[in-house]
Amino acid sequence: MAAPSGVRTCEDFAEFQELLRVMRTIDDRIVHELNTTLPTASFVGKVDANQTCKELYLSLREAHASREKIIKNCIAQTSNVVKTLREEREKAQDDVALLKQLRQEQTKLKLMQSELNVEEVVNDRSWKVFNERCRIHYKPPKSQ
């Protein structure tokens, strides 16, 4: 799923989370996808399970890579904002509004960093389900 890669997504944490939620649809529906596309013993000859698993593998890999890229990009952008605000804070230590903005950006940065942990759990769960259902039909390259 192609995602908008803009600074606006990183500025608003709620928008950032919504984008990730939409992008995680493939992971949320993997069990359903596997149940509806992989054949049972009685339908083995009617569906190419190898091709189905390969396509699902490529979709998962692409989705995981694009989400990770967006998360890391937003972390980098927010880190730069925090760094800039810290430098400004050193110059104007009495500025309460600046301190408040710095704290907000630091909180947002921590939340974005925690999304990396969430992403790891989501990815692990998806790969586990994929491997359980597709291991006999498709062997992905070792680079996973």
TrEMBL record:
<feature type="coiled-coil region">
    <location>
        <begin position="75"/>
        <end position="119"/>
    </location>
</feature>
<comment type="similarity">
    <text>Belongs to the MIX23 family.</text>
</comment>
<dbReference type="InterPro" id="IPR019171">
    <property type="entry name" value="MIX23"/>
</dbReference>
<dbReference type="GO" id="GO:0005758">
    <property type="term" value="C:mitochondrial intermembrane space"/>
</dbReference>
<protein>
    <recommendedName>
        <fullName>Protein MIX23</fullName>
    </recommendedName>
</protein>
<dbReference type="Pfam" id="PF09774">
    <property type="entry name" value="MIX23"/>
</dbReference>
<keyword id="KW-0175">Coiled coil</keyword>
